Amino acid sequence: MTNPSYLMRAYARQPVSFTRGSGARLWDQQGVEYLDAIAGVAVTSLGHANTEIAQVIAEQASTLLHTSNVFRIDWQEQLGERLCALTGMEKAFFCNSGAEANEAALKLARLYGHRKQVAQPQILVMENAFHGRTIATLTATDNPAKQQGFEPLLPGFLRVPFNDIDAVRRVAEQSPDIVAVLIEPVQGEGGIRVADAAYLQALRTLCDQQGWLLMLDEIQCGMGRTGAWFAHQHTGIVPDVMTVAKALGNGFPIGACLARGEVADLLSPGQHGTTFGGNPLACRVGCTVLDIMARDDLPKRAATLGDRLLSGLRDALSGHPEVVTIRGLGLMVGIELNRDCKELVGRALNEQHLLITVTRNSTIRLLPALICDDAQIDDIVARVAALLSPEAPTYPGTAALAEHMEPTT
Ligand SMILES: *Cc1c(COP(=O)(O)O)cnc(C)c1O
């Protein structure tokens, strides 16, 4: 048994360690099987231990891992072209994570502002937003618990309520220095909140009128998860800047900031960069993820499975006294309870052998892999219903769960 006390306590970890996975299933050190309804928080959309991804990683690792962005990288050029073809964007910058992708977007917005002679460019962000943990993306995030202790946060951000176009119009009148809007089409950490199509369309129009960049954070809701390749494609709008990460590598770290129009050509050599970002291995994995998603029509599959999950939950939990709403789009589903329910994460593991997360203290969040079969979706519904039922049948708990229990915060 290894020792967790050598790790900084950045997480309130569950006392379980998984040693292998397959598709939507995981096994712990005792060989106990679990059903994964979060896919590493919207990352392993093609399932754990995907054999095609594993093979490509092995092949590329024994061919060429890394050179440098000093040189051309064919896999990076290919992935850039393919992401642009899927989105209507024109150019890509590759990095290693979601936060880094958003950092690139925020830097582009400031460059764009300075290009327009705005000395103190402001970026409009949303209430309930999550954009990452670097200082700039933490500033863009709306979560006092995550921000506290890290002040001073950065200037240059204005916040408005999510899904409220009048609030944006009001701020626009008072703030001539706004240059961009950054928004998640479906807020993930914010509790699975879906922006209305009419709102995003009105935001697009307002951005055009004001000369603002519309920057979409599709890090969690992109890559097929909501039933379209990217969530904004349900609405017909096209952003100026879009960020992607999480499922793009199916667990291999990669992020991308995509842009079109004037902003796609803003960066000149030396203004931004990364050592690891866009290396041949990461980009080849990204290309393979796109291949598999296209071949197996996984965005469409996510729509079908998402409907099944949502209607299954609504049936199973109808009239439940604690359930306030069940909402979602595709395979992003939130079940909001009328109480704090963070303890359900541990109880789901122990009692139902089910991986879930809880966001904003009171919303159960489900983000299953896009390769789940119907029976696994039904199984998720059954286990969530059992978890929330007072006389739930429980799966036998695992012996090791009590060991190395870390204090939860
Ligand atoms: C996860 C996430 C991020 C941050 O990505 P990291 O890879 O953890 O840096 C940013 N925005 C959204 C919407 C996310 O879900």
TrEMBL record:
One of its GO terms (cellular component) is cytoplasm. Binds 1 pyridoxal phosphate per subunit. The modification N6-(pyridoxal phosphate)lysine is found at residue 246. One of its GO terms (molecular function) is pyridoxal phosphate binding. It is an enzyme of class 2 (transferase). GO terms for biological process: L-arginine biosynthetic process. It catalyses: N(2)-acetyl-L-ornithine + 2-oxoglutarate = N-acetyl-L-glutamate 5-semialdehyde + L-glutamate. This is Acetylornithine aminotransferase. It comes from Pseudomonas putida.
